[in-house]
Amino acid sequence: MQFILFLLSLFAIGCVLYGISAGVQVVQRGFNALASNDSDSKTAQEPQHLPQPPAAPLTSKGPDTATLPQRCINELQALFDLYQSGALTQQEFEKCKWHVLHSMTDGEAKHG
């Protein structure tokens, strides 16, 4: 009987700790959403503070011989991998994707 009570108390403690952890994560997401709403209201066209996109993986040809579209594809794939692994939130992923795609169109306008 004491063993069952001990297990029940351990389970209750685990539930409380899990609830606290989940609550902290919700509060953090709320603050991040408020912060992003403040920065989005300042300028609706371009994100303010973009996380730096990861460097494109090096191919056997080297980074200088890769075409601009291929480099952008590599960067987008790396960003998507980070998003799938949970390292980026969807909002961070969208901002980085926007940055990569616009750098591609700016690069083509300069070179083309």
Blueprint (SSEs and pairs):
Elements: H1 2-42, H2 68-85, H3 90-111
Helix pairs in contact: 2-3
Produce a short descriptive summary:
The protein has 112 residues and is mainly alpha-helical.
Notes on the protein architecture:
The protein has 112 residues and is mainly α. The protein folds into 2 domains: 1-46; 50-112. Helix content is 72%, strand content 0%. The protein is built from 3 helices and no strands. The longest helix is centred in the N-terminal third of the chain and has 41 residues, at 2-42. The chain starts with a helix and ends with a helix. The mean pLDDT is 75.
Instruction: Count the domains.
Output: 2
Overall residue-averaged pLDDT value: 75
| Total beta strand runs | 0
Over all CA atoms, what is the radius of gyration? 22 Å
* Low-pLDDT ranges: none
Order of helices and strands: HHH
Percentage of residues in strands: under 5%
Q: Structural class, from helix and strand content?
A: mainly alpha
Distance between the termini: 79 Å
Shape: elongated
Query: Total helix count?
Result: 3
Q: Major sheet: size, sense and barrel closure?
A: none
State the share of residues found in helices, binned by percent: over 70%
Oligomer: single chain
Key traits:
mainly alpha, 2 domains, 112 residues, 0% strand
